[in-house]
Specification:
The complex is a heterodimer of chains A (about 600) and B (about 300). Helix content of chain A is about 15%, strand content about 35%. Chain A has about 600 residues and is α+β, with helices and mostly antiparallel strands. Chain A is globular, with a radius of gyration of 24 Å. The relative contact order of chain A is 0.13. In chain B, about 65% of the residues lie in helices and about 5% in strands. A two-stranded antiparallel sheet of chain B has the order 1-4. A two-stranded antiparallel ribbon of chain B has the order 2-3. In chain B, strand 2 and strand 3 form a beta hairpin. The termini of chain B are far apart. The chains are: A alpha+beta (about 600), B mainly alpha (about 300). Chains A and B meet through helix 1, strand 21, helix 9 and helix 10 of A and helix 3, helix 5, helix 6 and helix 9 of B.
Chain lengths: ~600, ~300
Amino acid sequence: MTIQTKRTFVTFAFVGLLVGPAIYMRMTSHGHSHSQAAVSQDREGLLKRYGFVLQESSGEAGIDFVHHPPRIDTRLDHIAPQVAAMGASVAVVDFDRDGWQDFYVTDSAPNSLNRLYRNEHDGTFVDVARRVGLADLNGPGTGACMGSVWADIDNDGYEDVLVYKWGTVELFRNQLGESFERVTESAGMPAWDNVGCATWLDYDCDGWIDLFLAGYWPDDVRLEQLEHTRIMPESFEYANNGGRKWLLRNTGNGKFEDVTHAVGIDSTRWTLAVVAADFNDDTYPDLFLANDYGVSELYVNDAGKRFREQGKESGVGYAPKSGMNAAVGDVLNQGRLAIYESNISEEGVLIQGNNLWFPASDGSLQFDNLASVMGVELGGWSFGAQFGDLNNDGFVDLYLTNGYVSGDQGTSYWYDFSQITGGHSKIISEAKNWPDMKGRSLAGYQSKRVWLNDGAGQFQEVSQLVGATDQYDGRAVALADLNNQGALDVLVANQRGPLLLYRNRVAVDRHWIGFELTGTKSNRSAIGARVRVHWNGQQQLQELVAASGYAAQNQRRLHFGLGEHAEVDRVEIRWPSGERQVIERPAADQIHQVEEPR
Amino acid sequence: MSETHESNPYASPTDVKGVSAPRDTARDDEHMPYELRRWFSFDNRFLAPALITCILLGGQLTFGILESWTRTLLAIGTAMLIEMVLGKVMVGKFPHLASAYISGISVGILIRSPHFWPYALCAALSITSKYVLRWNNRHLWNPSNFGVSAMLFLYPAAVASLSIQWGNFLWPMIVVWGLGSIIIGRLKRFHICLTYIVSFIVLSGVRTLITGVPFASNVAPLTGPMYQLFVFFMITDPRTTVSGKRGQCLVALLVAVAEMLLRLAQVIHAPYYALFLVGPTAMAAELAWKKREKAADCQIADSPLPESNAS
């Protein structure tokens, strides 16, 4: 072979390498979108194919809530849309114990009103927040509401609520589902704390639910009236100058004591989401923190005495990204909980990829990121996400909302954003150095993701097909069976946008089972209980958690899809107290009320 | 990134004058067998690979800069494998692998993707470009600059560039500045870096005047360790920069100017694309100029002497 022939051969190979894969990817991508468009017309066909369809129904349900962003210092006006970019939240709760799921949403502008939508049992909802005393929580000088999290703090059977704020948190005691009593000071809540997320957990398993608060901004920052403008994170991926954390132990007499330092929690990262779940199967709940501008943290609970940060050791705390979500689910029905953490992916700019932290099979506290392998990695500027069996096929699916700032159409702030975030801490941390957004979008108008789990390790994205077609700047997602018909509906809270209710219609041949747990020796909300359903030769594990996703809380009722099998072999419950209970052959297609054996 | 010297004409040598291994230091080793002496003498070919390896290890062990070890190793392995295959096919012998190692490690650091394939593809494109995109028996593009630019342009959905994962603190800057200065000082190319840095800062001011964006924001990329890698290791590649100090400074200035124009158009990967455009153009111009000069010299040599001189 002559050198010329060799050169020709190598040249062809080079050109093939250069453009071949690109052409292939463009062609397959176009083919996919054409096929979506082709089948998107036939909803009955889609119901048959995917087992469910969604219909946005907030208007019919009487929901007209629109979120308004927090007000911030005028010196931040040039970057206001990205600083005041949070506050839309949704938490599902049956606050009046009528057996129907209600929900609470937060607004964030000064004097704007939060809403508590009571379920009217006929598909509609009525706002009762003002009547029960939970509406007016954005008063001047008190900060802006960021979310809420519900649990029974006094074990009286009614769910109480903590409303957390970039400002001062507020704690309310539920009085028989009729009104709420403000107990913030008497319970010993911290003063100004700029909390970005919070959850309830019984960390010491004493039967009283405790509280974890995660500051986002440092607690000396008052965004409405800044002392100085050096308030931004010191790094885009290594920032450690965020808010402090609090672990408040419920003493059982209406008071909470600060045990944060005593138990070894010392994070000052920019935490945006937290989930408390028992990752090492020792009964005591651990804490997973999804941190913006840095690595995730995993605080492992040492028998309710200490927490040890084991992010790096477990694999979740190594690669710094922009953690914004923390939800758990038994993805492959193996009886082990994976963690879904959302991050940022923007074509051509920043491909962090979301994380699906999949637990090791040997029982060790090790996680591998299988998001790419399973097809749930790229979701735009991802925010809230929840696991839930949307089509009742027996495998948990994943609903993800996204989008950061939808400004003027056709504009982009990405260039300026990428330029400043690559700079030294002295530059990035000074707000004045950030370029003016001038109404431009930053990862705006994004399509949502609904990933269907095939149970064999792959998720299929079907959002546009099944009806999740909005493009608002999504923040919180919560799942709940709002009609008590065995289908998980989807509530989505959007920043500067309307609250959406996606009604879920599931194929009639799919079965399900639900459990509402009441603790007796354990905390009455049964937060921390584990339920393992065995059916058709397989099992699925769910753990009852308070906060899940981003600024969200799902219904407390645990919902399991069963596919076409209407028989359950047995259900194993491990209560937070450690008590184990087995229920043999419970009936399918029903909600079961289960009380912890006394 | 800077490549190292090879006898292989397809490779990228550090051909700079005065940087060959100091032979006289081996005087006491005259009786040492050649092979042994070779192992103990520090060849400049290993200087850049050794130091960039130190940066990689330091960054990864302290900050976790890489997407993953396996992806970076895939890039390095692919680059070295392609180099061996193409070297054997095109030249007839296995080439020295220092150059391919640097290209692979550069790819492993500079691109970021959740997938594995971009690392292999980028490394393969980088090395293959040296053997294909040639003129006058010289390759024109810095291999890793070509590979990274091609990937960023053709696969934006799968690939981004390293921009932020080094952290923004002081000590990584000091490390890169220190190591970079050692390498660049030894290769006598610090004037290129200096010209580029000064140009970038001045042109950042120009951009501020034009766009109103704060100067600190415009100059911010330069303070990130990623940019220092670009400045020290990529624009100074001996094989793909023109000869002569003035010419090199001019090219560095032109890269900064092209980058400014791209930045004014809000092109996020401006530095890579600027070097992609300016570097080969400058090389081609120089080669054309030299060819013309050589032809003119030959013409003069071949032409009959004037009668007065002949006499």
